[in-house]
Inverse folding.
Protein backbone atom coordinates (compact mmCIF):
# COMPACT_ATOMS: atom_id res chain seq x y z
CA UNK A 1 0.00 0.00 0.00
CA UNK A 2 2.80 2.42 0.90
CA UNK A 3 4.63 1.50 -2.29
CA UNK A 4 1.53 2.32 -4.34
CA UNK A 5 1.19 5.72 -2.65
CA UNK A 6 4.87 6.48 -3.29
CA UNK A 7 4.49 5.52 -6.96
CA UNK A 8 1.41 7.71 -7.29
CA UNK A 9 3.31 10.62 -5.78
CA UNK A 10 6.13 10.16 -8.28
CA UNK A 11 3.66 10.08 -11.16
CA UNK A 12 2.00 13.25 -9.90
CA UNK A 13 5.40 14.93 -9.50
CA UNK A 14 6.40 13.97 -13.04
CA UNK A 15 3.08 15.27 -14.37
CA UNK A 16 3.56 18.55 -12.51
CA UNK A 17 7.11 18.87 -13.86
CA UNK A 18 6.01 18.20 -17.44
CA UNK A 19 3.17 20.68 -17.01
CA UNK A 20 5.53 23.39 -15.79
CA UNK A 21 7.90 22.71 -18.69
CA UNK A 22 5.04 22.95 -21.19
CA UNK A 23 3.86 26.14 -19.50
CA UNK A 24 7.35 27.58 -19.81
CA UNK A 25 7.51 26.64 -23.49
CA UNK A 26 4.11 28.21 -24.07
CA UNK A 27 5.10 31.35 -22.20
CA UNK A 28 8.30 31.65 -24.22
CA UNK A 29 6.35 31.23 -27.45
CA UNK A 30 3.59 33.60 -26.45
CA UNK A 31 5.65 36.40 -24.94
CA UNK A 32 8.85 36.30 -27.01
CA UNK A 33 12.15 34.52 -27.07
CA UNK A 34 14.16 34.00 -23.91
CA UNK A 35 16.89 36.60 -23.38
CA UNK A 36 20.35 35.17 -22.56
CA UNK A 37 22.01 36.28 -19.34
CA UNK A 38 24.92 37.72 -21.35
CA UNK A 39 23.29 39.91 -24.03
CA UNK A 40 25.50 41.29 -26.80
CA UNK A 41 24.43 44.07 -29.14
CA UNK A 42 24.10 41.65 -32.06
CA UNK A 43 21.86 39.38 -29.99
CA UNK A 44 19.72 42.35 -28.96
CA UNK A 45 19.26 43.32 -32.62
CA UNK A 46 18.33 39.74 -33.58
CA UNK A 47 15.78 39.63 -30.77
CA UNK A 48 14.31 42.90 -32.00
CA UNK A 49 13.98 41.49 -35.54
CA UNK A 50 11.98 38.59 -34.16
CA UNK A 51 9.88 40.41 -31.56
CA UNK A 52 9.60 44.15 -32.26
CA UNK A 53 5.90 44.70 -33.17
CA UNK A 54 6.53 47.78 -35.31
CA UNK A 55 9.14 46.02 -37.43
CA UNK A 56 7.05 42.87 -37.75
CA UNK A 57 4.13 45.00 -38.98
CA UNK A 58 6.33 46.11 -41.87
CA UNK A 59 7.95 42.72 -42.46
CA UNK A 60 4.65 40.92 -42.97
CA UNK A 61 4.00 43.07 -46.08
CA UNK A 62 6.41 40.79 -47.93
CA UNK A 63 3.88 37.95 -48.24
CA UNK A 64 1.23 40.25 -49.71
CA UNK A 65 3.73 41.63 -52.24
CA UNK A 66 4.73 38.08 -53.29
CA UNK A 67 1.10 37.12 -53.80
CA UNK A 68 0.52 40.28 -55.83
CA UNK A 69 3.20 39.14 -58.29
CA UNK A 70 1.66 35.67 -58.51
CA UNK A 71 -1.74 37.24 -59.04
CA UNK A 72 -0.42 39.40 -61.90
CA UNK A 73 0.86 36.31 -63.73
CA UNK A 74 -2.38 34.45 -63.04
CA UNK A 75 -4.34 37.12 -64.92
CA UNK A 76 -3.17 35.44 -68.14
CA UNK A 77 -4.88 32.18 -67.07
CA UNK A 78 -8.69 31.83 -67.35
CA UNK A 79 -10.58 31.95 -64.08
CA UNK A 80 -12.74 28.97 -63.12
CA UNK A 81 -15.94 29.10 -61.09
CA UNK A 82 -18.05 26.07 -60.18
CA UNK A 83 -21.49 26.49 -58.63
CA UNK A 84 -24.42 24.24 -57.84
CA UNK A 85 -27.87 24.51 -56.32
CA UNK A 86 -30.66 22.37 -54.93
CA UNK A 87 -34.24 23.39 -54.13
CA UNK A 88 -37.62 21.97 -53.21
CA UNK A 89 -41.04 23.29 -54.22
CA UNK A 90 -44.16 22.32 -52.30
CA UNK A 91 -47.40 21.37 -54.06
CA UNK A 92 -50.13 23.97 -54.06
CA UNK A 93 -51.37 27.05 -55.83
CA UNK A 94 -48.65 28.94 -57.70
CA UNK A 95 -48.87 32.72 -58.02
CA UNK A 96 -46.75 34.84 -60.37
CA UNK A 97 -47.57 38.48 -59.74
CA UNK A 98 -51.25 38.90 -60.47
CA UNK A 99 -51.47 35.61 -62.39
CA UNK A 100 -52.80 32.64 -60.42
CA UNK A 101 -52.10 29.25 -61.96
CA UNK A 102 -53.82 25.97 -61.34
CA UNK A 103 -52.88 24.01 -58.25
CA UNK A 104 -49.64 22.11 -58.46
CA UNK A 105 -50.49 18.56 -57.48
CA UNK A 106 -47.03 17.31 -56.48
CA UNK A 107 -43.84 18.42 -54.79
CA UNK A 108 -40.81 19.05 -56.98
CA UNK A 109 -37.07 18.74 -56.35
CA UNK A 110 -34.64 20.77 -58.44
CA UNK A 111 -30.84 20.72 -58.73
CA UNK A 112 -28.29 22.07 -61.16
CA UNK A 113 -24.67 22.99 -61.75
CA UNK A 114 -22.74 25.60 -63.66
CA UNK A 115 -19.07 25.69 -64.69
CA UNK A 116 -17.85 29.11 -65.83
CA UNK A 117 -14.58 30.05 -67.49
CA UNK A 118 -13.66 33.69 -67.84
CA UNK A 119 -10.70 35.77 -68.92
CA UNK A 120 -10.15 39.49 -69.40
CA UNK A 121 -7.20 41.00 -71.24
CA UNK A 122 -6.71 44.75 -70.87
CA UNK A 123 -4.08 47.30 -70.01
CA UNK A 124 -4.01 46.29 -66.35
CA UNK A 125 -3.36 42.68 -67.34
CA UNK A 126 -0.58 43.54 -69.76
CA UNK A 127 1.29 45.96 -67.49
CA UNK A 128 0.27 44.35 -64.20
CA UNK A 129 3.27 42.00 -63.97
CA UNK A 130 5.85 44.76 -64.26
CA UNK A 131 3.95 46.92 -61.79
CA UNK A 132 3.61 44.08 -59.28
CA UNK A 133 7.31 43.23 -59.50
CA UNK A 134 8.26 46.87 -58.98
CA UNK A 135 5.94 47.03 -55.98
CA UNK A 136 7.51 43.88 -54.53
CA UNK A 137 10.99 45.36 -54.97
CA UNK A 138 9.81 48.51 -53.17
CA UNK A 139 8.39 46.40 -50.35
CA UNK A 140 11.62 44.45 -49.97
CA UNK A 141 13.63 47.68 -49.92
CA UNK A 142 11.30 49.21 -47.34
CA UNK A 143 11.65 46.15 -45.09
CA UNK A 144 15.43 46.29 -45.45
CA UNK A 145 15.37 49.98 -44.55
CA UNK A 146 13.19 49.34 -41.49
CA UNK A 147 15.52 46.52 -40.47
CA UNK A 148 18.51 48.85 -40.63
CA UNK A 149 16.65 51.59 -38.73
CA UNK A 150 15.68 49.07 -36.08
CA UNK A 151 19.33 48.09 -35.64
CA UNK A 152 20.29 51.74 -35.21
CA UNK A 153 17.55 52.35 -32.63
CA UNK A 154 18.50 49.24 -30.66
CA UNK A 155 22.18 50.27 -30.79
CA UNK A 156 21.39 53.71 -29.42
CA UNK A 157 19.23 52.32 -26.63
CA UNK A 158 21.79 49.61 -25.86
CA UNK A 159 24.36 52.38 -25.54
CA UNK A 160 21.98 54.36 -23.33
CA UNK A 161 21.71 51.41 -20.93
CA UNK A 162 25.51 51.10 -20.80
CA UNK A 163 25.76 54.82 -20.12
CA UNK A 164 23.20 54.50 -17.33
CA UNK A 165 25.17 51.61 -15.85
CA UNK A 166 28.35 53.69 -15.89
CA UNK A 167 26.33 56.58 -14.48
CA UNK A 168 25.47 54.41 -11.49
CA UNK A 169 29.18 53.61 -11.06
CA UNK A 170 30.05 57.31 -11.21
CA UNK A 171 27.34 58.14 -8.66
CA UNK A 172 28.61 55.36 -6.41
CA UNK A 173 32.18 56.72 -6.60
CA UNK A 174 30.88 60.19 -5.78
CA UNK A 175 29.05 58.76 -2.78
CA UNK A 176 32.19 56.93 -1.65
CA UNK A 177 34.24 60.13 -1.90
CA UNK A 178 31.55 62.08 -0.03
CA UNK A 179 31.62 59.47 2.74
CA UNK A 180 35.40 59.67 2.86
CA UNK A 181 35.25 63.49 3.11
CA UNK A 182 32.57 63.22 5.80
CA UNK A 183 34.83 60.95 7.86
CA UNK A 184 37.78 63.31 7.46
CA UNK A 185 35.69 66.31 8.47
CA UNK A 186 34.11 64.47 11.41
CA UNK A 187 37.55 63.49 12.66
CA UNK A 188 38.62 67.13 12.56
CA UNK A 189 35.39 68.22 14.31
CA UNK A 190 35.85 65.62 17.08
CA UNK A 191 39.40 66.83 17.59
CA UNK A 192 38.09 70.38 17.94
CA UNK A 193 40.26 71.53 15.06
CA UNK A 194 37.29 72.92 13.07
CA UNK A 195 33.83 74.20 13.81
CA UNK A 196 30.85 71.86 13.91
CA UNK A 197 29.36 73.61 10.90
CA UNK A 198 32.00 71.92 8.76
CA UNK A 199 30.57 68.57 9.76
CA UNK A 200 27.05 69.67 8.86
CA UNK A 201 28.18 70.89 5.47
CA UNK A 202 29.98 67.61 4.79
CA UNK A 203 26.82 65.74 5.81
CA UNK A 204 24.77 67.82 3.34
CA UNK A 205 27.27 66.99 0.60
CA UNK A 206 26.93 63.29 1.49
CA UNK A 207 23.15 63.53 1.25
CA UNK A 208 23.38 65.06 -2.21
CA UNK A 209 25.63 62.21 -3.32
CA UNK A 210 23.04 59.71 -2.04
CA UNK A 211 20.33 61.50 -4.04
CA UNK A 212 22.55 61.36 -7.14
CA UNK A 213 22.93 57.59 -6.73
CA UNK A 214 19.17 57.10 -6.36
CA UNK A 215 18.51 59.11 -9.51
CA UNK A 216 21.20 57.22 -11.44
CA UNK A 217 19.66 53.88 -10.44
CA UNK A 218 16.24 55.13 -11.54
CA UNK A 219 17.66 56.22 -14.91
CA UNK A 220 19.17 52.75 -15.37
CA UNK A 221 15.85 51.01 -14.71
CA UNK A 222 14.07 53.26 -17.18
CA UNK A 223 16.76 52.77 -19.84
CA UNK A 224 16.46 48.98 -19.52
CA UNK A 225 12.69 49.22 -19.89
CA UNK A 226 13.08 51.22 -23.10
CA UNK A 227 15.58 48.66 -24.42
CA UNK A 228 13.12 45.87 -23.60
CA UNK A 229 10.48 47.79 -25.55
CA UNK A 230 12.80 48.02 -28.55
CA UNK A 231 13.71 44.32 -28.59
CA UNK A 232 10.08 43.36 -27.95
CA UNK A 233 10.54 41.09 -24.96
CA UNK A 234 11.11 41.28 -21.23
CA UNK A 235 14.56 42.23 -19.97
CA UNK A 236 15.02 40.86 -16.46
CA UNK A 237 17.48 42.45 -13.98
CA UNK A 238 19.68 39.34 -14.27
CA UNK A 239 20.44 40.08 -17.93
CA UNK A 240 23.83 41.77 -18.33
CA UNK A 241 24.84 43.73 -21.42
CA UNK A 242 28.19 42.25 -22.38
CA UNK A 243 29.27 44.23 -25.47
CA UNK A 244 32.09 46.71 -24.93
CA UNK A 245 32.97 49.70 -27.10
CA UNK A 246 36.36 51.32 -27.49
CA UNK A 247 37.31 54.89 -28.23
CA UNK A 248 39.46 55.20 -31.34
CA UNK A 249 40.69 57.99 -33.52
CA UNK A 250 38.34 58.37 -36.51
CA UNK A 251 40.34 57.98 -39.71
CA UNK A 252 37.43 57.85 -42.15
CA UNK A 253 37.37 59.87 -45.36
CA UNK A 254 34.31 62.08 -45.63
CA UNK A 255 34.09 61.66 -49.42
CA UNK A 256 34.16 57.88 -49.09
CA UNK A 257 31.47 57.96 -46.39
CA UNK A 258 29.32 60.17 -48.59
CA UNK A 259 29.74 57.82 -51.56
CA UNK A 260 28.73 54.80 -49.47
CA UNK A 261 25.65 56.64 -48.23
CA UNK A 262 24.53 57.74 -51.71
CA UNK A 263 25.06 54.30 -53.24
CA UNK A 264 24.22 51.77 -50.54
CA UNK A 265 22.07 53.32 -47.82
CA UNK A 266 19.00 51.08 -47.25
CA UNK A 267 16.71 54.06 -46.75
CA UNK A 268 17.80 55.64 -50.03
CA UNK A 269 17.40 52.32 -51.84
CA UNK A 270 13.88 52.16 -50.43
CA UNK A 271 13.07 55.62 -51.79
CA UNK A 272 14.50 54.69 -55.19
CA UNK A 273 12.50 51.48 -55.30
CA UNK A 274 9.39 53.41 -54.34
CA UNK A 275 10.10 55.85 -57.16
CA UNK A 276 10.45 52.97 -59.66
CA UNK A 277 7.22 51.46 -58.39
CA UNK A 278 5.25 54.68 -58.86
CA UNK A 279 6.78 55.17 -62.32
CA UNK A 280 5.66 51.66 -63.29
CA UNK A 281 2.17 52.38 -61.96
CA UNK A 282 2.07 55.65 -63.91
CA UNK A 283 3.04 53.85 -67.14
CA UNK A 284 0.37 51.24 -66.48
CA UNK A 285 -2.31 53.89 -66.05
CA UNK A 286 -1.11 56.11 -68.88
CA UNK A 287 -1.00 53.29 -71.44
CA UNK A 288 -3.50 50.77 -70.14
CA UNK A 289 -6.41 53.20 -69.99
CA UNK A 290 -6.31 53.62 -73.79
CA UNK A 291 -6.08 49.93 -74.73
CA UNK A 292 -9.13 47.81 -75.60
CA UNK A 293 -10.55 45.34 -73.15
CA UNK A 294 -11.15 41.78 -74.35
CA UNK A 295 -13.44 39.52 -72.34
CA UNK A 296 -13.90 35.82 -73.08
CA UNK A 297 -16.28 33.61 -71.10
CA UNK A 298 -17.75 30.12 -71.44
CA UNK A 299 -20.39 28.29 -69.43
CA UNK A 300 -21.25 24.61 -69.06
CA UNK A 301 -24.37 23.78 -67.09
CA UNK A 302 -26.87 21.06 -66.35
CA UNK A 303 -30.08 20.58 -64.38
CA UNK A 304 -32.26 17.88 -62.83
CA UNK A 305 -36.03 18.07 -62.11
CA UNK A 306 -37.81 15.30 -60.25
CA UNK A 307 -41.43 14.88 -59.13
CA UNK A 308 -41.56 13.59 -55.58
CA UNK A 309 -44.97 11.87 -55.99
CA UNK A 310 -44.80 8.60 -57.99
CA UNK A 311 -48.59 8.54 -58.48
CA UNK A 312 -48.29 11.86 -60.27
CA UNK A 313 -45.70 10.37 -62.64
CA UNK A 314 -47.87 7.34 -63.37
CA UNK A 315 -50.92 9.57 -63.93
CA UNK A 316 -48.94 11.61 -66.42
CA UNK A 317 -47.89 8.44 -68.26
CA UNK A 318 -51.42 7.02 -68.28
CA UNK A 319 -52.87 10.39 -69.33
CA UNK A 320 -50.53 10.64 -72.30
CA UNK A 321 -51.35 7.06 -73.32
CA UNK A 322 -55.11 7.66 -73.14
CA UNK A 323 -54.74 10.83 -75.19
CA UNK A 324 -52.73 8.97 -77.82
CA UNK A 325 -55.29 6.13 -77.95
CA UNK A 326 -58.20 8.59 -78.31
CA UNK A 327 -56.39 10.41 -81.07
CA UNK A 328 -55.59 7.12 -82.82
CA UNK A 329 -59.24 5.98 -82.71
CA UNK A 330 -60.39 9.37 -83.99
CA UNK A 331 -57.98 9.19 -86.90
CA UNK A 332 -59.11 5.63 -87.70
CA UNK A 333 -62.77 6.70 -87.60
CA UNK A 334 -62.14 9.64 -89.89
CA UNK A 335 -60.08 7.50 -92.22
CA UNK A 336 -62.88 4.89 -92.46
CA UNK A 337 -65.66 7.45 -92.97
CA UNK A 338 -64.07 9.37 -95.79
CA UNK A 339 -64.16 7.76 -99.23
CA UNK A 340 -60.66 7.01 -100.28
CA UNK A 341 -59.40 7.65 -96.78
CA UNK A 342 -57.26 10.49 -95.48
CA UNK A 343 -54.29 11.59 -97.61
CA UNK A 344 -51.85 10.96 -94.75
CA UNK A 345 -53.55 9.23 -91.80
CA UNK A 346 -50.76 9.92 -89.29
CA UNK A 347 -51.55 8.72 -85.77
CA UNK A 348 -53.94 6.00 -86.95
CA UNK A 349 -53.54 2.30 -87.35
CA UNK A 350 -53.19 -0.18 -84.52
CA UNK A 351 -54.14 1.74 -81.37
CA UNK A 352 -53.05 -1.05 -79.08
CA UNK A 353 -49.45 0.04 -79.49
CA UNK A 354 -50.19 3.00 -77.23
CA UNK A 355 -51.36 0.86 -74.35
CA UNK A 356 -49.07 1.30 -71.28
CA UNK A 357 -47.57 -1.84 -69.81
CA UNK A 358 -46.10 -2.33 -66.35
CA UNK A 359 -42.63 -2.18 -67.83
CA UNK A 360 -43.45 1.24 -69.29
CA UNK A 361 -44.61 2.46 -65.88
CA UNK A 362 -41.41 1.24 -64.20
CA UNK A 363 -39.31 2.87 -66.93
CA UNK A 364 -41.14 6.16 -66.37
CA UNK A 365 -40.51 5.94 -62.62
CA UNK A 366 -36.84 5.15 -63.24
CA UNK A 367 -36.56 8.07 -65.65
CA UNK A 368 -38.00 10.40 -62.99
CA UNK A 369 -35.28 9.43 -60.47
CA UNK A 370 -32.80 12.18 -61.41
CA UNK A 371 -32.40 14.23 -58.18
CA UNK A 372 -29.81 15.36 -57.23
CA UNK A 373 -26.95 14.34 -59.58
CA UNK A 374 -28.49 12.83 -62.72
CA UNK A 375 -28.24 16.07 -64.64
CA UNK A 376 -29.42 16.87 -68.11
CA UNK A 377 -26.59 18.72 -69.86
CA UNK A 378 -27.61 22.05 -71.32
CA UNK A 379 -25.96 23.52 -74.43
CA UNK A 380 -22.66 25.30 -73.86
CA UNK A 381 -22.61 29.08 -74.04
CA UNK A 382 -19.54 31.14 -75.00
CA UNK A 383 -19.18 34.92 -75.19
CA UNK A 384 -16.49 37.15 -76.64
CA UNK A 385 -16.67 40.88 -76.15
CA UNK A 386 -14.31 43.69 -77.07
CA UNK A 387 -14.67 47.19 -75.69
CA UNK A 388 -12.69 50.32 -76.43
CA UNK A 389 -13.15 53.39 -74.25
CA UNK A 390 -13.68 56.50 -76.35
CA UNK A 391 -14.78 59.19 -73.92
CA UNK A 392 -14.95 58.65 -70.17
CA UNK A 393 -15.70 62.16 -68.97
CA UNK A 394 -11.99 62.92 -68.46
CA UNK A 395 -11.72 60.15 -65.87
CA UNK A 396 -8.74 58.64 -67.68
CA UNK A 397 -6.98 61.97 -67.90
CA UNK A 398 -7.51 62.57 -64.19
CA UNK A 399 -6.21 59.11 -63.31
CA UNK A 400 -3.13 59.57 -65.50
CA UNK A 401 -2.48 62.95 -63.87
CA UNK A 402 -2.82 61.45 -60.37
CA UNK A 403 -0.41 58.63 -61.23
CA UNK A 404 2.16 61.04 -62.68
CA UNK A 405 1.85 63.26 -59.61
CA UNK A 406 2.55 60.30 -57.34
CA UNK A 407 5.62 59.43 -59.42
CA UNK A 408 6.87 63.01 -59.22
CA UNK A 409 6.23 63.08 -55.47
CA UNK A 410 8.29 59.90 -55.12
CA UNK A 411 11.12 61.52 -57.08
CA UNK A 412 11.03 64.61 -54.86
CA UNK A 413 10.99 62.41 -51.75
CA UNK A 414 14.04 60.53 -53.03
CA UNK A 415 15.93 63.81 -53.65
CA UNK A 416 14.93 65.06 -50.20
CA UNK A 417 16.30 61.87 -48.66
CA UNK A 418 19.57 62.30 -50.54
CA UNK A 419 19.90 65.85 -49.22
CA UNK A 420 19.03 64.71 -45.70
CA UNK A 421 21.63 61.96 -45.77
CA UNK A 422 24.31 64.32 -47.11
CA UNK A 423 23.68 66.72 -44.25
CA UNK A 424 23.46 63.89 -41.74
CA UNK A 425 26.76 62.31 -42.86
CA UNK A 426 28.61 65.63 -42.72
CA UNK A 427 27.25 66.56 -39.28
CA UNK A 428 27.72 63.08 -37.83
CA UNK A 429 31.30 62.89 -39.05
CA UNK A 430 32.08 66.31 -37.61
CA UNK A 431 30.45 65.31 -34.29
CA UNK A 432 32.47 62.09 -34.15
CA UNK A 433 35.79 63.85 -34.74
CA UNK A 434 34.94 66.57 -32.22
CA UNK A 435 33.72 64.11 -29.60
CA UNK A 436 36.97 62.15 -29.87
CA UNK A 437 38.94 65.30 -29.05
CA UNK A 438 36.56 66.05 -26.18
CA UNK A 439 37.09 62.55 -24.74
CA UNK A 440 40.85 63.10 -24.66
CA UNK A 441 40.43 66.49 -22.98
CA UNK A 442 37.90 65.22 -20.42
CA UNK A 443 40.10 62.25 -19.57
CA UNK A 444 42.94 64.65 -18.80
CA UNK A 445 40.60 66.86 -16.76
CA UNK A 446 39.42 63.87 -14.74
CA UNK A 447 42.98 62.81 -13.93
CA UNK A 448 43.90 66.33 -12.80
CA UNK A 449 40.69 66.68 -10.75
CA UNK A 450 41.38 63.40 -8.99
CA UNK A 451 44.91 64.48 -8.12
CA UNK A 452 43.57 67.83 -6.86
CA UNK A 453 40.95 66.12 -4.69
CA UNK A 454 43.53 63.81 -3.09
CA UNK A 455 45.76 66.80 -2.41
CA UNK A 456 42.96 68.83 -0.79
CA UNK A 457 41.89 65.86 1.35
CA UNK A 458 45.44 65.57 2.72
CA UNK A 459 45.75 69.34 3.24
CA UNK A 460 42.41 69.47 5.06
CA UNK A 461 43.40 66.55 7.29
CA UNK A 462 46.56 68.45 8.19
CA UNK A 463 44.66 71.70 8.73
CA UNK A 464 46.30 73.42 5.75
CA UNK A 465 43.05 73.80 3.74
CA UNK A 466 39.56 74.97 4.51
CA UNK A 467 36.35 73.00 4.08
CA UNK A 468 35.43 75.24 1.18
CA UNK A 469 38.57 74.23 -0.69
CA UNK A 470 37.86 70.54 0.00
CA UNK A 471 34.26 70.77 -1.18
CA UNK A 472 35.32 72.78 -4.21
CA UNK A 473 37.77 70.03 -5.15
CA UNK A 474 35.00 67.46 -4.62
CA UNK A 475 32.69 69.43 -6.90
CA UNK A 476 35.41 69.69 -9.53
CA UNK A 477 35.97 65.94 -9.36
CA UNK A 478 32.23 65.29 -9.71
CA UNK A 479 32.04 67.61 -12.70
CA UNK A 480 35.10 66.00 -14.31
CA UNK A 481 33.74 62.49 -13.72
CA UNK A 482 30.40 63.40 -15.26
CA UNK A 483 32.06 65.30 -18.10
CA UNK A 484 34.20 62.30 -19.02
CA UNK A 485 31.18 60.01 -18.92
CA UNK A 486 29.20 62.38 -21.17
CA UNK A 487 32.12 62.78 -23.60
CA UNK A 488 32.73 59.04 -23.74
CA UNK A 489 29.16 58.16 -24.68
CA UNK A 490 28.81 61.19 -26.91
CA UNK A 491 31.58 59.60 -28.97
CA UNK A 492 29.75 56.25 -29.09
CA UNK A 493 26.44 57.95 -29.90
CA UNK A 494 28.11 59.93 -32.68
CA UNK A 495 29.53 56.72 -34.15
CA UNK A 496 26.10 55.06 -34.16
CA UNK A 497 24.56 58.15 -35.79
CA UNK A 498 27.32 58.23 -38.41
CA UNK A 499 26.74 54.54 -39.18
CA UNK A 500 23.02 55.27 -39.45
CA UNK A 501 23.80 58.09 -41.91
CA UNK A 502 26.24 56.03 -43.97
CA UNK A 503 24.09 52.90 -43.96
CA UNK A 504 26.69 50.39 -42.84
CA UNK A 505 28.83 49.37 -39.87
CA UNK A 506 32.06 51.34 -39.63
CA UNK A 507 33.67 49.92 -36.50
CA UNK A 508 33.09 46.59 -34.74
CA UNK A 509 32.84 46.63 -30.96
CA UNK A 510 34.91 44.20 -28.89
CA UNK A 511 33.16 41.43 -27.01
CA UNK A 512 33.88 40.29 -23.46
Amino acid sequence: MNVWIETADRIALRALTVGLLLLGIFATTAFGQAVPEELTLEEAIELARSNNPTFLTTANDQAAADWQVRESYAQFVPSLTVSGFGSWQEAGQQVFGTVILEDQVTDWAFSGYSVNFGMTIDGNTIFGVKNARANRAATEARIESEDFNLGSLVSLQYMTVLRAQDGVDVAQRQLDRAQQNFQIVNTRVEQGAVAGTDGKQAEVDLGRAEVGLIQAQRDLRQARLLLAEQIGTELTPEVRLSSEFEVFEPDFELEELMQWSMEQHPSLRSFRARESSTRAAARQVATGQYLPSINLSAQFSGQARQALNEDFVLQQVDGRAESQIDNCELVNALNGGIPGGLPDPAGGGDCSRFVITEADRQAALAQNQVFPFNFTTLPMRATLSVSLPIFTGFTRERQVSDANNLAEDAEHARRAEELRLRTMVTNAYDNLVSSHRVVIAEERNRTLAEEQLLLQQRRYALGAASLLELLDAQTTMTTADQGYLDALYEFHYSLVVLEAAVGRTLHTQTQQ
Q: What stands out?
A: Residues 36-77+129-292+393-511 form a domain with the Outer membrane efflux proteins (OEP) fold (CATH 1.20.1600.10).
